[in-house]
Specification:
By secondary structure, the chain is of the alpha/beta class. It has a single domain, classed as Response regulator (Rossmann fold, 3-Layer(aba) Sandwich). It has a five-stranded parallel β-sheet, sandwiched between helices. The longest helix has 16 residues. The N terminus is likely disordered.
Length: about 130
């Protein structure tokens, strides 16, 4: 049985997705959402852990929840220090920054909660395809 994914069927098993969330249950949920798409997954439980991971290795994409402490600062620092690493942010509908404000941070994608697994897979595939060109 094939895992769910974009209609193109493209997979990137060698690609690493760094998922950042400070709530362990939410982090596990995000991991379960991303896992069927056959990416390698690395987890960070804070912005500081994400930045430490980025200094140790360069993931192909970062998926970061805007609900974490200092999320805007973390996104800004990632974009400044690792400009080739795309960032996809996740936000609560109607909370925090407006999508246009988030785009000004230079993110590659923006997803609203509740997350639809297919939308996450499509967003990852689009961002990774753009990065590989």
């Amino acid at each position: 049985m094939e895992s769910p994914g974009p209609e193109t069927g493209d997979r990137f098993p060698e690609r690493v997705v760094l998922i950042v969330h400070d709530d362990p249950a939410a982090l596990e949920t995000l991991e379960r959402i991303v896992a069927p798409f056959d990416y390698r997954i690395s987890l960070a439980r804070s912005g500081a852990q994400a930045l430490a991971a980025l200094s140790a290795f360069e993931p192909d994409v970062v998926v970061l929840d805007l609900g974490i402490v200092a999320s805007v600062e973390v996104v800004s620092r990632i974009r400044r220090e690792y400009p080739d690493v795309p960032v996809i942010v996740i936000a609560e509908h109607g909370a925090g920054l407006a999508p246009i404000e988030v785009r000004r941070l230079g993110v590659a994608g923006y997803l609203l909660k509740p997350l639809e697994p297919a939308a996450v897979g499509i967003m990852l595939a689009v961002v990774l395809t753009r990065r590989s060109k």
